[in-house]
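#structure-requests
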Amino acid sequence: MNFKHTVSRLTAGLLLVSALVTPAFAATGTVNTEGSSLRLRSEANTGSSVLKTLGHGTQVEVLSDLADGWYQVSYKGTTGYVSGEYLTVTEDGAAVQAAAEPAADKIYIKVTEGPLNIRSGPGTDYDRAGSLSTGRTAEVVEKLDGWYKISGGYVCADYVTEIDAAAYQASYSKGQEIADYALQFKGYRYVHGGSSPSTGFDCSGFTSYVYKQFGYSLNRTCSGQLDNGTPVSMSELQPGDLVIFKKGNSSSRATHVGLYIGDNQFIHASTAKVGVIINKLSDYYYTTGFVGGRRIV
């Protein structure tokens, strides 16, 4: 066989293989979570494991656009999947998804004296619609004379201060980081008195261990953890908050504790039968037994 002809056929074959393995969709994605973070998952669903958490503004390489609203992306050598709802994708210089309004154009507030009532209208005569604890932050929908409209209602301007976008983002990112870290232990075994991945966890051992990895020391029992951090109601829970329950006729102040992960869900070391699992906070068993949330960060 002629040598030049052989080389030509090999070159053509390599070009064909290259064409086959080149991604059909290549673009840049920017995380758009407005103060929170986006979970990079091992599969294109919310039940899969979290590989990394991506902060607001993080840029990733988009490898493919999936039909069910997810993107396959690559970030610092890790390939995974993210929800397209929180990703602004740019292909060939054109925005595929509309970018978020610049943070500089938004107003954020932080509660300086709480608990602060959220009202159904801009005045103290309106019904109470909820409350915000001291240190809680919120994005302002509308600024009024002496009042701020936020998601869920209105708060009096006398008890809040305006903060910048960076401070607002920081208030969420650490709690989200802690929640995402806790998710890796889903499926670990329950062991009474356990407080490490090697031995297993009981409920307060699990929350204590997770927070210890971030430099926070929690009391070892459920009841004791009611004294850690600051109180938050069920309606104002953020990722990373402790959720504490009491069931049965126990004389203790609390009998169970978990860690809120967002989307009305929490992760906890449940029982020896199921280990560390995720449940909905709205399940009747937990709604009726809820005695309080605690914000540690």
